[in-house]
Write a structure and sequence with these properties.
about 650 residues, Rossmann fold, Arc Repressor Mutant, subunit A, 34 helices
Length: about 650
């Protein structure tokens, strides 16, 4: 079949049979669930466009499996309806060690931000199947839809794990599946209006109502069909007719389109070069591509899969197209598109380059599960590299797997050249991990090696700060010198200012002069409001509360602790809470409120029960001993003092 044997555009018909079903449904959760090619997204758009229904669209993709990316994407989509929604989601993601561990908190923050969601508005999850099988991601959506009367429409190839029979039975949710979404004879006849009735009947029977197959058949002018077959075979037959209609000189370039998630003139030009305009116009005239907007062309997922099978990565020009696309995706920070391409066409140098380019951005946005998934894939492929080990160390230290992080960071350092700026970073991570694991002597050795290897001020500044903290823990006289060298390298940001204040307060605690560094609770809270990093903000408030207790200003310490705990609750940042409770307990003990002190210590212990925390437990026992002593129960106080502590 040649190009003249095809219509010049696809036909999209209205499907009143289905829109009536949606109109009649009283369910607040509507699920369109069927394999690719059943017109789910088209139906959703048609129905939502009726009666000017308001809708915010979240379009699923490979990144949707990562809770951090999912939460940001859904929040940003919801902000189309409720401006400002999701601001606290962004704040929590910038502070939490693990988005997956805080999935309920992330979802609850968004629930609270959407309390003004209009009753008639819909939140749409298009291509929900990208979340399927990823428990934290589906838990996020489940929490969202279960915690508020949100109207949700989703299109998916698989049913959500949280879509229980109970929801369907009680009418909270309704599902239109493949049998309903398949075209009936009347709809098929409308789509194939220019075809002989006999051919229409044959097509409907062979396609089993599969809209994608019938849509392709609608573009044909010939009446030749395979003698028999199932819908998938019929689709392959029709798709191959499209392929044969493409001029032979363009076929290689057309199959390259299947590698591009969002097909635009720009992306196509980067992939195939000067033929881009000709390829796009030819595919549009053949009906292979449809215009989605002024910039973007749509390629049906089934045709995409068909052309991917035709793509030959061993061909020199095709291989060059993959390289060009990887470069383009990386330049545009389209990390997930780049990785999806690499999964199809694995290459060690390319995955190492991608991890190197994307690592800091993914870490900054707390997309640890994405980075972890990439590293697991690289390991399965047998790819090893110091950069992959370094990325693994960065993930592990954020997951509190300090021994693993130190080991991976040292492995990375052994494979890096002495002149490589990443060497100092690897040694810095090893030092931080050892320090966090209470191995201060080992940490000092790693950090000193990082200091000697550092070639830029940013790394050196972090090295000196960690050396300073390490020296404080070791009660070393070098602490003051390390702090001075760190101070000379600061850039003057609010985060740097807070860190310097905390450092000076630490030194004052050892050298004297604490009082001159004290702020009132109001001054302290006002100061940290300018700090972007919630961890730095929280660390400063905890330390400052301790200083107020140390100086006997217990009421102010209680006031600051209360404001800090309220702030942590507001953004659902949980891991600093035990530390804040301990300092509150110390202030409560200072004013003689032993019962409240005991209650705060009990709450702190309860919060660390699952994960354990030797530092918190030690401080709890010290304060408990002081509380017992204040009640004249000296025997129990002595028994409570941690082993090794002077009595």
């Amino acid at each position: 079949m040649n190009a003249e044997g095809l219509q010049t555009r696809r036909r999209i018909i209205e499907r009143p049979r289905l829109t009536r079903l949606l109109d009649q449904s009283k369910a607040r959760i509507i699920m369109l669930v069927a394999p690719a090619g059943y017109g789910k997204t088209t139906l959703a758009r048609q129905w939502l466009a009726q009666e000017n229904r308001r809708a915010a669209w979240y379009i699923g993709g490979p990144a949707s499996a990562d809770v951090a990316a999912l939460a940001v994407g859904v929040a940003d989509a919801a902000a189309q309806i409720v401006p400002g929604a999701g601001a606290r989601v962004h704040r929590l993601l910038s502070a939490t060690h693990s988005a997956e561990d805080d999935v309920d908190s992330l979802a609850q923050l968004l629930v609270e931000d959407l309390r003004d969601w209009p009753s008639g508005a819909w939140l749409v999850f298009d291509d929900y199947h990208f979340l399927s099988g990823h428990v934290p991601a589906e838990r996020f959506v489940e929490h969202l839809v279960s915690s508020m009367p949100l109207r949700v429409m989703l299109t998916s190839r698989t049913r959500p794990s949280w879509s229980s029979a109970r929801r369907l039975i009680y009418g909270e949710a309704t599902q239109l599946g493949g049998p309903l979404l398949a075209m009936d004879s009347q709809e098929a006849a409308q789509l194939l209006a220019d075809k002989p009735q006999a051919e229409v009947s044959a097509l409907v029977a062979m396609a089993d109502g599969w809209p994608a197959v019938l849509a392709l058949a609608a573009l044909r002018e010939e009446a030749i069909l395979p003698a028999q077959g199932v819908p998938s075979a019929l689709f392959s037959y029709l798709a191959d007719e499209f392929y044969q209609a493409i001029p032979p000189a363009l076929r290689r370039d057309v199959t390259t389109l299947a590698l591009i998630p969002s097909i635009t003139v720009e992306t196509t030009t980067h992939a195939i070069g000067q033929n881009a305009s000709l390829v796009l116009s030819t595919c549009s005239s053949l009906g292979i591509l449809t215009r989605e907007d002024d910039e973007t062309f749509g390629l049906h997922p089934l045709l995409r899969t068909f052309f991917q099978h035709k793509f030959d990565p061993q061909d020199e020009r095709s291989n060059l197209a993959v390289t060009r696309l990887l470069s383009y995706f990386t330049t545009k920070l389209l990390w997930d598109d780049a990785f999806t391409l690499l999964q199809a066409y694995p290459d060690k140098a390319a995955i190492v380059s991608l991890v190197h380019a994307a690592m800091d951005d993914l870490l900054y946005n707390n997309r640890l599960s994405t980075l972890e998934r990439w590293l697991s894939w690289a390991e399965r492929e047998g790819f090893a590299s110091p950069i992959l080990s370094l990325a693994g160390a960065e993930v592990a230290v954020r997951q509190a797997m300090f021994a693993n992080s130190e080991a991976m960071a040292l492995e990375a350092s052994r494979g890096l050249d002495q002149a490589d700026p990443l060497l100092a970073r690897a040694l810095l991570i090893a030092g931080r991990a050892a320090l966090l694991n209470s191995r201060e002597g080992t940490a000092l050795a790693h950090l000193d090696a990082a200091r000697r290897a550092a070639s830029n001020e940013d790394t050196l500044r972090e090295v000196f700060w960690n050396l300073f903290v390490c020296a404080l823990e070791l009660e070393s006289d070098a602490a003051e010198s390390y702090f001075a060298q760190h101070e000379r390298l600061v850039r003057g940001s609010p985060d740097d200012h807070i860190r310097l204040m905390a450092g000076r307060a630490h030194l004052a605690g050892r050298l004297g002069g604490v009082k001159q560094h004290l702020l009132s609770p109001t001054e302290a809270v006002d100061l940290v409001e300018r700090v972007r990093d919630p961890i730095i903000r929280s660390s400063f408030l905890i330390r400052h509360s301790y200083m107020l207790v140390f100086c006997g200003r217990y009421e102010e310490a209680l006031d600051l602790s209360a404001q800090h705990l309220d702030n942590l609750d507001e953004i659902r940042l949980t891991f600093p809470i035990p530390h804040a409770l301990v300092v509150r307990a110390a202030a409560q003990l200072g004013i003689g409120d032993v019962d409240s002190c005991t209650a705060s210590l009990d709450e702190a212990r309860e919060r660390i029960r699952a994960r354990g925390d030797g530092y918190i437990e030690m401080n709890c026992r010290i304060l408990e001993a002081k509380a017992l002593a204040a009640q004249q129960d000296f025997r129990r106080a002595l028994l409570t003092v941690p082993d090794g502590m002077p009595t």
